[in-house]
């Protein structure tokens, strides 16, 4: 895992531009604290290419893994990459790739030369990369299937194209016309002489590209278990010490158990004979700390328990929003951010984490109210394809803030495709029914049952069949409640009553989000020429217990509320739900509900599109036009793209909208 920053086709004085690029790339130094390199190429017409790599060395530490990368001494193919290619050994052997550089990402350039841009389909891993073919003048960039590695693309006023691991490098350079999320599962290609490139979807399983697709294949528990185990084993590839994040819930406990049991079987893993280290965090007495300690004792890990206070969490809010580059996922990001700092101090560089299971298998508590198997599947698809703006973004940026790489085995292509091509009837929650062993069909039943192996148990029954607890809740209810209390003190009733004037675009429905939106604007919007671009990278819409806006329609009471991402918002399901105050929409306001506070379906239409589906698959740009979006290749450009833009005046967002990949 690293930080990458590339500018291709830049005009102007090279000396000035190098300083300019260096200064911008410093903003992602936290992603690559181990080394820094820049490749500069000046063409005959004076246009320049800058490729910057900030390295966090996990595989092949030292000079043998340095970037930028080249396929040979001519440097005709120059490239940079962020991430891990877990099948690089197989690809080296298959394509007879010989190179002194031992980086797992070295195969990217060689595969491009041999197979062209479609080589990306052969990569098994998490990645974002940029290639400049200096022989043909072709530019290519790509991003992994789930967007586990963050990536943004920008278009220069001079026709240049920019790529960056984080948005903060792009927000205020006067030469940038606009920037946006580089969509997951796509690659960008621009041939010599072209003024516009095109985005091509490479990750195109039917569950992603066909919104009406409902699978009917029955899952095999053994196949599912082996698929998950293989994903974990592959992600133990490392030449440095690593650990696991253990909350005590099902997903992190399974990852930990598999790592403990199968570590010696993994290829190229560090310390194969050493015990696995696990980390948990919470306010003292939090549910996760208690559960994690029980799991760690049962599995025999070297367990580290980190504590924090609500006050320490509140201190970190501005830094969290700066690193996340969004106002969402803050509740869960704060403890992960604080935990990552502690993990770094112990000398670890990589951690395994359990993100993905709740989306793939319907693990959130609101799935109890799914009206049908078909809608259950569609919600899983919506949640999974938007992860690059939610849990995946949070996991990557919260940890990389301290130079820690996070790996998410449950979001491997193999696990994703297996889970999302499984009959959703097998995922439906039926708490009033039990299987032959007496277990209820609760959240993520498929995953639980796949690892219910009594002869060689992966987990104790009380862990394997424990109810879902959202991370931000599990670290201690005092943190969530403390954040809300803090927002109530920081945002006056008068300010909140005038929120429509303060935030014309989807005004926040709670003081918590008013506060977070203020922090976000201070970092990325106020005084920025492209402030609308920052907002266009963020998702909007009401949520119940981490639902999509569309799923809010499953319950009339949810539609009437302001929404809340806490699992406690699902009454009669969460054990603490009856005591949770889910406020009605409009509570605390002096005026009638604003027309700008959209109903779930309307809010969803403001979400962006990453291609393949009409509607709401992620957020690349705020959608201003209705109707289907064509899949496959689409033209992308800088100055010539249709867009509706406006400027931000001071702290007030006048208007922010853009046509997404028209």
Automatic annotation (TrEMBL):
Q: What is this protein called?
A: asparagine synthase (glutamine-hydrolyzing)
Q: What class of enzyme is it?
A: ligase
Q: Supply the alphabetized keyword list.
A: Amino-acid biosynthesis, Asparagine biosynthesis, ATP-binding, Glutamine amidotransferase, Ligase, Nucleotide-binding
List the GO molecular function terms.
asparagine synthase (glutamine-hydrolyzing) activity; ATP binding
Q: Which CDD domains match?
A: Asn_synthase_B_C (cd01991), AsnB (cd00712)
Q: What EC number(s) does the entry state?
A: 6.3.5.4
What Pfam families does the record point to? Asn_synthase, GATase_7
Q: Which PANTHER family match?
A: ASPARAGINE SYNTHETASE, ASPARAGINE SYNTHETASE [GLUTAMINE-HYDROLYZING]
Q: Which residues form the Glutamine amidotransferase type-2 domain?
A: 2-193
The reaction(s) catalysed by this protein are:
L-aspartate + L-glutamine + ATP + H2O = L-asparagine + L-glutamate + AMP + diphosphate + H(+)
| Pathway entry | Amino-acid biosynthesis; L-asparagine biosynthesis; L-asparagine from L-aspartate (L-Gln route): step 1/1
Organism from which the protein derives: Micromonas commoda (strain RCC299 / NOUM17 / CCMP2709)
Cellular compartments per GO CC: cytosol
Q: Which InterPro entries match?
A: Asn_synth_AEB, Asn_synthase, Asn_Synthetase, AsnB_N, GATase_2_dom, Ntn_hydrolases_N, Rossmann-like_a/b/a_fold
Designated gene of the protein: ASN2
């Amino acid at each position: 895992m690293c930080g990458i920053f590339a500018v291709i086709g830049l005009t102007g004085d090279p000396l000035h531009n190098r300083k300019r690029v260096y200064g911008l790339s410093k903003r992602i130094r936290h992603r690559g604290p181990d080394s820094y390199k820049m490749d500069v190429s000046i063409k005959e017409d004076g246009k320049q290419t800058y490729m910057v790599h900030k390295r966090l060395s996990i595989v092949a530490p030292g000079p043998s893994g340095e970037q930028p990368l080249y396929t040979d001494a001519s440097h005709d193919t120059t490239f940079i990459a962020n991430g891990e290619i877990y099948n690089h050994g197989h690809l080296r052997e298959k394509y007879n790739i010989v190179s002194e550089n031992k980086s797992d990402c070295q195969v990217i350039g060689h595969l491009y030369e041999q197979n062209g841009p479609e080589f990306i389909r052969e990569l098994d891993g998490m990645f974002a990369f940029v290639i400049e073919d200096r022989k043909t003048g072709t530019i290519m960039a790509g991003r992994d299937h789930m967007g586990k590695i963050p990536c943004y693309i920008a278009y220069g006023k001079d026709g240049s194209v920019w790529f960056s691991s984080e948005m903060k490098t792009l927000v205020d350079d006067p030469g940038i016309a606009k920037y946006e999320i580089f969509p997951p599962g796509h690659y960008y290609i621009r041939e010599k002489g072209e003024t516009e490139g095109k985005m091509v979807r490479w990750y195109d399983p039917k569950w992603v590209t066909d919104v009406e697709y409902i699978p009917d294949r029955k899952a095999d528990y053994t196949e599912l278990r082996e698929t998950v185990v293989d994903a974990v084993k592959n992600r133990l590839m490392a030449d440095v010490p690593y650990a696991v994040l253990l909350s005590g819930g099902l997903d992190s406990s399974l990852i930990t158990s598999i790592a403990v049991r199968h570590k010696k079987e993994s290829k190229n893993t560090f310390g194969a004979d050493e015990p696995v280290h696990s980390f948990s965090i919470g306010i003292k007495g939090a549910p996760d700390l208690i559960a994690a300690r029980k799991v760690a004792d049962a599995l025999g890990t070297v367990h580290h328990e980190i504590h924090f206070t609500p006050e320490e969490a509140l201190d970190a809010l501005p830094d969290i929003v700066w690193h996340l580059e969004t106002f969402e996922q803050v509740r869960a990001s704060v403890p992960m951010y604080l935990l990552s700092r502690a993990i770094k101090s112990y000398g670890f560089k990589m951690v395994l984490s359990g993100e993905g299971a709740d989306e793939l298998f319907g693990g959130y508590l609101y799935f109890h109210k799914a009206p049908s198997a078909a809608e259950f599947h569609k919600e899983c698809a919506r949640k999974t394809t938007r992860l690059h703006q939610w849990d995946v973004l949070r996991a990557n940026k919260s940890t990389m803030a301290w130079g820690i790489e996070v790996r998410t085995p449950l979001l491997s292509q193999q696990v994703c495709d297996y889970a999302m091509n499984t009959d959703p009837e097998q995922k439906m929650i039926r708490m009033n029914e039990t299987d032959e062993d007496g277990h209820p069909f609760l959240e993520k039943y498929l995953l639980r049952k796949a690892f219910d192996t009594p002869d060689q148990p992966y987990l104790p029954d009380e862990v394997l069949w424990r109810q879902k607890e959202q991370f931000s809740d599990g670290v201690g209810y005092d943190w969530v409640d403390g954040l809300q209390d803090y927002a109530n003190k920081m945002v006056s009733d008068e300010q909140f009553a005038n929120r429509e004037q303060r935030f014309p675009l989807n005004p926040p429905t709670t003081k918590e989000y008013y506060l977070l939106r203020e922090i976000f604007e201070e970092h990325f919007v106020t005084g920025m020429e492209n402030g609308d671009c920052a907002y266009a990278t963020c998702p909007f819409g009401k949520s119940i217990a981490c639902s999509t806006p569309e799923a809010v329609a499953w319950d009339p009471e949810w539609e009437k509320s302001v929404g809340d991402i806490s699992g406690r918002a699902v009454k009669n399901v969460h054990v603490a739900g009856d005591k949770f105050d889910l406020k009605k929409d409009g509570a605390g306001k002096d005026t009638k509900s604003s027309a700008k506070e959209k109903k779930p379906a309307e809010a969803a239409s403001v979400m962006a599109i990453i291609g393949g589906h009409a509607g709401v698959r992620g957020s690349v740009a705020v959608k201003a036009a209705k109707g289907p979006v064509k899949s496959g290749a689409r033209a992308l450009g800088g100055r010539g793209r249709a867009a509706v833009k406006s400027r931000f005046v001071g702290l007030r967002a006048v208007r922010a909208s853009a046509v997404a990949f028209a």
